[in-house]
């Protein structure tokens, strides 16, 4: 049986944006996307702008989400934001395990798995990031790193295989994020094939796998034509309405 997965493109704004700049950016994006066949599209702004972005995108095809989330449901965790709070803000997604969170905030593989389950339990979609550093890639450790990062997630998801369609994995080689460098298409496909095999073995055949790492309008068509790439998690290009819309159009070509 052929499994059909709806392509997904999510823009990660990282620590960018302002109340003044967000509105024209989103209005321009919606204008570029108008009258086009679209994949599933979302944006993840910083926490302070979630309410504004949600108001601007209400009644549009574009969804929104957060860049991180607490593993806790509530309580004495100063500075943290729970998945239920994100749901109150109308979020659809929460990114977990981004390499910048792993690096700067010391988030572990086990903590990422707990965050993913907290997101799922609240009815949102976790976008679970995995990827190797430049040193790990040079040492031919890419697949071993991916396996290590995925292991606690797959263990946590054991027995909830029906949630596969509500989970997204994003492969982002750390050395390609914001550098302008990308792996070869063959390299991207090889890693995605490996991830797909691990997900299939866990019964998560509906899980979408995104690629992230210097995706832009000029290379999106090539990347999204790869059989196991279901869309992209986009960084810098998500702050350019025209480039982001070009990427969305490229992903829409995967629609049957």
Task: Give a quick precis of the structure.
The chain is α/β, with parallel strands linked by helices and 256 residues long.
How many structural domains?
1
Structural class: alpha/beta
The amount of helix comes to 40-55%
The strand count comes to: 8
Largest sheet: 8 strands, parallel
List the total number of helices: 10
Which spans of ≥5 residues are poorly predicted at pLDDT below 50? none
Mean model confidence by pLDDT: 95
CATH class: Alpha Beta
Rounded to an integer in angstroms, the radius of gyration calculated over CA atoms is 17 Å
Distance between the termini: 15 Å
Spatial arrangement of strands, main beta sheet:
7-6-5-4-3-2-1-8
Named CATH architecture: Alpha-Beta Barrel
Query: What's the helix-strand series?
Result: EHEHEHEHHEHHEHEHEH
GO cellular component, one term: cytosol
Keywords: Cytoplasm, Gluconeogenesis, Glycolysis, Isomerase
InterPro entries: Aldolase_TIM (IPR013785), TIM_sf (IPR035990), TrioseP_Isoase_bac/euk (IPR022896), Triosephosphate_isomerase (IPR000652), Triosephosphate_isomerase_AS (IPR020861)
EC number: 5.3.1.1
């Amino acid at each position: 049986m052929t499994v059909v997965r709806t392509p997904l493109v999510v823009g990660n704004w990282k620590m960018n944006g302002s109340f003044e700049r967000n509105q024209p950016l989103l209005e321009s994006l919606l204008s570029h996307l108008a009258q086009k066949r679209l994949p599933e599209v979302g944006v993840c702004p910083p926490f302070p702008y979630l309410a504004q972005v949600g108001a601007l995108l209400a009644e549009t095809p574009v969804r929104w989400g957060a860049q991180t989330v607490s593993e806790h449901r509530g309580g004495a965790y100063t500075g943290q934001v729970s998945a239920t709070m994100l749901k109150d803000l109308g979020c659809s997604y929460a990114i977990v395990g981004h390499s910048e969170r792993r690096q700067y905030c010391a988030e572990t593989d086990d903590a990422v798995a707990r965050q993913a389950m907290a997101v799922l339990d609240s009815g949102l979609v976790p976008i679970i990031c995995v990827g190797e550093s430049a040193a790990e890639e040079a040492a031919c450790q890419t697949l071993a790193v991916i396996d290590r990062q995925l292991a606690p997630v797959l263990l946590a998801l054991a027995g909830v295989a029906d949630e596969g369609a509500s989970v997204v994995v994003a492969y982002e080689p750390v050395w390609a994020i914001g550098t302008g460098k990308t792996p070869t298409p063959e390299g991207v496909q090889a890693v995605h094939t490996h991830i797909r095999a691990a997900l299939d073995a866990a019964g998560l055949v509906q899980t979408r796998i995104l690629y992230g790492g210097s995706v832009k309008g000029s290379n999106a068509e090539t990347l999204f034509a790869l059989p196991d790439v279901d869309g992209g998690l986009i960084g810098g290009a998500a702050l350019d309405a025209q480039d982001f819309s070009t990427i969305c159009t490229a992903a829409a070509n995967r629609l049957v």
